[in-house]
Amino acid sequence: MIRVALVGNIASGKSTVEAILQQFGYLVLDTDKVCHKLLEHNSEIIEAFSSYDILDGNQNISREKLGKIVFSNLKLKTKLESILHPQIRKKILKFFEINKSQKIVFVAIPLLFEANMQDLFDKILFVYTNDEIRLERLIARNKYTKEYAQIRLNSQLSQDEKVKKSDYVIYNNSTKGELKEKVLKVFEQIR
Q1: What is the CATH number of the domain that holds 138?
Q2: What is the domain count for the chain?
Q3: Domain with 82 in it
Q4: What is the distance, to the nearest Å, from the Cα of residue 123 to the centroid of all Cα atoms in its chain?
Q5: Residue 92 has pLDDT above 90, yes or no
Q6: pTM for the whole thing?
Q7: What count of other Cβ atoms lies within 10 Å of the Cβ of residue 42?
Q8: What is the pLDDT of residues 14-51, one digit of tens each?
Q9: How buried is residue 168: exposed, middle or buried, by Cβ count under 10 Å (0-12/13-18/19+)?
Q10: Measuring CA to CA, how many Å separate 157 from each of 8, 111, 189?
Q11: How far is CA 77 from the centre of its chain?
Q12: Which residues pair with 128 in a beta bridge?
């Protein structure tokens, strides 16, 4: 089985690439969705952040509240990641085990390098989008202020660093149609 990491910084178009791959019948594990599920009611996180207001009215973790706290404090972000990353790693390994009969599988994992999980993959595919476009997308999609959107962009390793560490790079600065063509070309190289 070829295990491919689909990587891209926030608002780069990873989800669109993921959807294209799924349209062609490929299995993709989305670690953002895994993370959201892990955050629903994670007692370890609730305990670790008990002195902060991170719960919603139903006593579940509010991703919005938690995000504002951790993206404004590197120490707290590291604390959260030290809880989540091992749990995400386990989910990825389980995904590989369940799908071991597949010729190729993909894992959409935005924080591959930050979480130091490169060892799990045979190939790394990075989706690169100009920072200005990513900023505009983040403001429009998530309704963030420009300042908070910039904080979120800056919270990840630079795209240039990730390009250097990747086997394949797709530049996503144009239309969805062109992106689909680029995905198909790279996919032919990976197979």
Answers
A1: 3.40.50.300
A2: 1
A3: 2-190
A4: 16
A5: yes
A6: 0.91
A7: 18
A8: 999 999 999 999 999 999 999 999 998 899 999 999 99
A9: middle
A10: 10, 8, 26
A11: 15
A12: 171
Please provide the size of the chain in residues. Answer: 191
Tokens of 130: 């100009």
Q: Is residue 187 pLDDT above 90, yes or no?
A: no
| Secondary structure (3-state) at 166 | coil
In one-letter notation, the amino acid at residue 27 is L
User: What six digits make up the tokens of 25?
Assistant: 């019948």
Q: How far apart are CA 186 and CA 191, in angstroms?
A: 9
Per DSSP, helices labelled H in the chain are: 14-23, 31-39, 43-48, 63-70, 74-98, 131-142, 146-154, 159-164, 176-190
- What would the two tokens of residue 182 be? 């680029």
126: closest CA among 163, 88, 151?
163
